[in-house]
Amino acid sequence: MNPLTALLHRIEISDRTADRLLAGHTILLFVFIYVPILVVALLSFTPQEVPTFPMPGISLEWYGELVPPNHNEQLVDALFRSVAIGILSAIGAGIVGTIAAFGLVRYEFEHRLLSRETLNTVFLLPLVVPWIVTGIAVLTLYDMIGIRGTFFSVVLGHVLITIPFVVIIVSSQLYGLDRSIEEAAKNLGATELRTFYEITLPILAPSIIAGMLFAFTISFDNFTQTFFWATTGTETLPIVIYSMIRTGIDPSVNAIGTVIVLFSLSVAFLGERLSKRILE
């Protein structure tokens, strides 16, 4: 028995004490995660250009910079660009990820190098490989084929890093799908395509939508890889915010940050609800 194991055997903690320690740890975790976000949200209402505590009052001045006609064009343009990239990435990841999930679950792979386990690992690699490595690798590829810095290249990169989320969610429902429903439709004369369109796709719709929502959130919030792929004219909102705070804290950043948090939480909540519906 090693010394650490021996020490743990000597320590006796009652269930009540263990519950208190677990509760305290949980509270500290939530404080660590959410207090900085609450501070940003509070400072977005300050009337001062240099935020301080306590705030001298409450103002919506910085939110006014997000609304025409006196809006910050750089921030708003980046916001709409991020939304557009997120939507296109979610659609691309939804299509590719759903097809990949069908292949991984339904197709019988006989080749040793193209086994289900190998392909599953390949599709999940973007979750395992450090994001900075992915950013540099894809940037090198873009330089070789001459599309670096284009809007298409940013969307393509975001599709790459969001596909795994769709594959995981859709595959989980496909594994639990009752194939007898599809077989019954075919026995009644439905073709393979009609069975997919009228039976399989409606059943999988919640998982596909949930995966696309998660893909949109990851794309919208992504900074590390996008920092390598974007150039002037294709910067996303996180890149623009980073550029603004390098020279000082702009209160309008707090306002747009609060909007992003609320928007991302709403999308994530909707995706989580759809995921729970899948499991039910």
TrEMBL record:
Subcellular location: Cell membrane
Alphabetized PROSITE patterns for the sequence: ABC_TM1
CDD domains membership: TM_PBP2 (cd06261)
Transmembrane helix among keywords: yes
GO process annotations (BP): transmembrane transport
Keywords, ordered alphabetically: Cell membrane, Membrane, Transmembrane, Transmembrane helix, Transport
Residue ranges of domain ABC transmembrane type-1 in the record: 79-271
Membrane-topology annotation of the record: Multi-pass membrane protein
GO cellular component, one term: plasma membrane
Positions of transmembrane segments: 21-45, 83-107, 119-142, 154-175, 196-220, 226-245, 252-271
Protein family: Belongs to the binding-protein-dependent transport system permease family. CysTW subfamily.
PANTHER family in UniProt: PUTRESCINE TRANSPORT SYSTEM PERMEASE PROTEIN POTI (PTHR43848:SF2)
UniProt-recorded name of the protein: ABC transporter permease
Organism this protein belongs to: Natrarchaeobius halalkaliphilus
